[in-house]
Amino acid sequence: MTxxxxxxxxPKDPIRPDISTTAPARLATRLAFFAAGFAMACxxxxxxxxxxxxxADKAQFGALLLCLGLGSLIAMPxxxxxAARRGARPLIxxxxxxxxxxxxxxxxxxxxxxxxxxxxxxxxxxxxxxxAMNVHGAEVEALEKRPLMSNFHAHxxxxxxxxxxxxxxxxxxxxxxxxxxxxxxxTALIAMLIARPCFLNVTxxxxxxxxxxxGIVLLLAALTCIIFLVEGAVLxxxxxxIIDRDLSSPKNAGTGYILFSIAMLIGRLTGDRLIxxxxxxxxxxxxxxxxxTGLGVILLSSNLIVALSGFxxxxxxxxxxxxxxxxxxxxxNLMPPGIAIAAVTTTGYxxxxxxxxxxxxxxxxxxxxxxxxxxxxxxxxxPLSARWVVSQKNRD
Length: 396
Description:
Elements: E1 2-4, H1 23-53, H2 58-86, H3 89-108, H4 112-144, H5 149-172, H6 177-195, E2 201-203, H7 216-244, H8 255-269, H9 271-278, H10 280-300, H11 304-318, H12 321-331, H13 337-365, H14 368-379, H15 381-384, H16 386-389
Antiparallel strand pairs: 1-2
């Protein structure tokens, strides 16, 4: 692997790297995560208006939203292959600028076919920047020789809060939907333009155009899928679980996910320091057990306040698990890091997409509570696998 940089110099001292030299690349990575999370979150308040523009019913719009996930799943493996040979920088820029262009185009769509095509391409750009910015984050982390990935992922959450909040505010002020989309796109564009000159220029020379995921990469992908499965279940079924257990009325049931999101953001903002002090092994074990405990608290509690504390525990426990897994994928030497991170990202995203459907299927056969108990048992795999994840055999 050959590293060259424009504005960022690789530190000469391999033991005590000068992190000031990689500060611009660190900032660029945070801005990329922010821009991607911001652009994605802008869509949530706008989706009802997109649905109205194309006169789609609920079933049709649900099918259209599948195009978003399909586009991401198609783009992620391809991004990994390209990043392994060309580096992450051009793919981050392509994905980021693509999101900027597609956000207003979705607002302009006047037919289901046009909206579906826009969602498909938007999802592809989202998948591309998702993989590429994680590859870049792993490169910066390797140069600085300290945990950074949790903070990078926290900026996705910050972008999400800002994007959803800004769109909600603008819509409440009766700003036209197209104008809202353009303002959101302009904000994401500013972040990308600031980041553009600061990315590392890293290119690879792997002779293989594609390497099938294997060994530790398969384990990392499976664990990521489990964690995203939990996150998807909390997002789509958490409120219904509270209602199903007669702990809350529908109007207050969404509080659980809000607390989960806040706890995860706090956990990721403090995660790098925690990982540096406690180590990845302890963080994986404790994080997995805390997330399991949170699920158990929700399922066993008979009091709403206690149940809501379970959502906080899940958020705190799961916060740093995925960043650690991405870091491990980036430093393993079994296959090109770009392809490894693409495999982990794709599998995790598949878990996020399939999770709600799997929970719904199990709930129909068994019950929603039993489905969540099975999810808690599945989460046990994370702490049980921690030793393999942090094994020195998986490091360069």
